[in-house]
Design a protein that fits this description.
This protein has about 120 residues and is of the alpha/beta class. The protein is built from five helices and four strands; from the N terminus they run αβαβαβαβα. It has a single domain, classed as Oxidized Rhodanese, domain 1 (3-Layer(aba) Sandwich), CATH 3.40.250.10. The chain is globular.
Length: about 120
């Protein structure tokens, strides 16, 4: 499934994504589990669980996040290794939501020195 998704979506290398971190027209979205984020930190970016309807920018949805309803923004999704984000972007693409993903995931982001911030554990 991942290979099929990757064959038809836009994938960014880690170098390309790091270069976009300060671009005001790019929104990098973390879809990893909150425990993963707390354990290893996060790219300074919005967070939403995988397959969450709020990412589609539907203001009438009860959990809508306005960050996903910004015209002209480029959305780049990521997970730990690029598998979940590939499937997410393929699904979003099928639903008409334009997005790309970080091909090698957060693990490679860290290995290549991309910015990471701690995510505190919630009580």
């Amino acid at each position: 499934m991942v290979a099929t998704a990757r064959a038809r979506i836009c994938e960014l290398s880690t170098e390309e994504a790091i270069a976009l971190i300060d671009d005001p027209d790019v929104v990098i979205v973390d879809i990893r589990d909150i425990r993963e984020r707390q354990r290893s930190g996060a790219i300074p970016a919005p967070f939403t669980p995988r397959a969450d309807d709020r990412i589609l920018g539907r203001p009438r949805q009860p959990y809508h996040k306005p960050v996903f309803a910004q015209p002209g923004k480029r959305y780049v999704f990521h997970c730990a290794s690029g598998w979940r984000s590939a499937l997410t972007v393929a699904t979003l693409q099928d639903m008409g939501f334009a997005a790309s993903h970080l091909r090698d995931g957060f693990t490679d982001w860290v290995n290549q020195g991309g910015p990471v911030e701690p995510v505190p554990a919630k009580d």
